[in-house]
């Protein structure tokens, strides 16, 4: 609170009691500034649950709040712009006094509306007071082409005029829009460029002069609103633009970004996934599987098949993680097992989460969404493999034995391909991998600290990586893949 104890504030019921308690009015921007300063001075976090912005976006946002600026968060989809906006509520006082019954949250000491002014004039210190919690001081509007000035600012209400027998020249016939009703609150307009230019013009006076105009009424309404806009830079060319005079009235434009490391991306996904503890209990998710989920997103952001300008939302990784767990859960139900671990073959279930969230360029359209998703998974596997295992030599010199020599020899001498499916029970799946002794030895040598479930996942990673670099063959089978010797497969194909 500004100068009232939090516990005592809601017990104050009249204007007289509020004055005795020592309440002093202050604008919402000053309120945010004061509470931010208090948090920083106490060493408390300002925007909890936001990862990867500690040294970039958050300091810029803090500077904008200290400057009491209107703010525009500019960034691609899935960069926590709306989450940041909603977290600003935590910097407000816990309770805010208003004149009871006011449509626009009238400050008891400085009423704006006709209703508020008249009530204070009539009742003086007996004016009833009600309290608004900070969670209710957040208003949000998604900008769409059908939004009107009446929606945002207000309009004349003929029904009110008829019921109250008032002329249209009377201020009381006005029906206030979302912005006046958000007086003394945080008001967010998401996807600002989608708002028609003529509607954006209607915000000019509110941002700069503080007055509003409704159907010929020119009201000197010094609205006290913390505006915060969000926008996607691609919107400036694809769907619309922020008109220049409006941009000029926005104090700070802050650029958001995607996570800069897999570890940060993992923290975001872990926080956002909607998988209950009850569901996760029988399903073990190896650390390498979590890394691969994030690596797919990183690969998508630099893929030649993906329109990176449209952005790869963090929601892709979240949905992919949930699908991955569900794929393992489905196997558990079908095999009637009690416990299972995520396998690389379960990533077939991740494909729908990818195809629905990436925008492909022309080359990607030619190849098909499924091909692009499989390619991104394969590239993610390759990146994960190179972090844990030696790079594959292009050619081995005569008489040398590289790290993968024994494994390649095993497949060269094997009569049948190694088949791994997502519907195998755990015992069969593990036995299939363990029969390839050089594969197990390779993982033990280079990943000695890997836990048992991760060990088997990494065995699959090695097979996929070797196949991806054409050291082994990989063929699609029902619910999985078969791995074999590349040269033997070519020979069989030639014979056929």
Structural commentary:
The chain has three domains: 9-255, 3-Layer(aba) Sandwich (Rossmann fold); 262-388, Helicase, Ruva Protein, domain 3; 405-495, Orthogonal Bundle (Arc Repressor Mutant, subunit A). Strand 15 (472-477) and strand 16 (480-485) form a beta hairpin. Helix 13 crosses helix 16. The mean pLDDT is 88. With 496 residues, the protein is of the alpha/beta class. The N and C termini lie far apart (82 Å). Strands 4-7-10-1-11 form a five-stranded parallel beta sheet, with helices on one face. Strands 14-16-15 form a three-stranded antiparallel beta sheet. It is 44% helix and 13% strand.
Please give the structural blueprint.
Blueprint: H1 15-20, H2 28-42, H3 57-66, E1 71-74, H4 81-87, E2 95-99, H5 114-123, E3 129-133, E4 138-142, H6 149-152, E5 154-156, H7 158-164, E6 174-176, H8 178-181, E7 186-190, H9 197-201, H10 204-208, E8 212-214, E9 217-219, E10 226-231, H11 235-238, H12 244-249, E11 252-255, H13 262-272, H14 277-280, E12 283-284, H15 287-300, H16 314-335, E13 340-341, H17 351-355, H18 362-367, H19 369-388, H20 405-413, E14 418-421, H21 426-434, H22 437-446, H23 452-468, E15 472-477, E16 480-485, H24 486-495
Helix pairs in contact: 13-15, 13-16, 15-16, 15-19, 19-23, 22-23
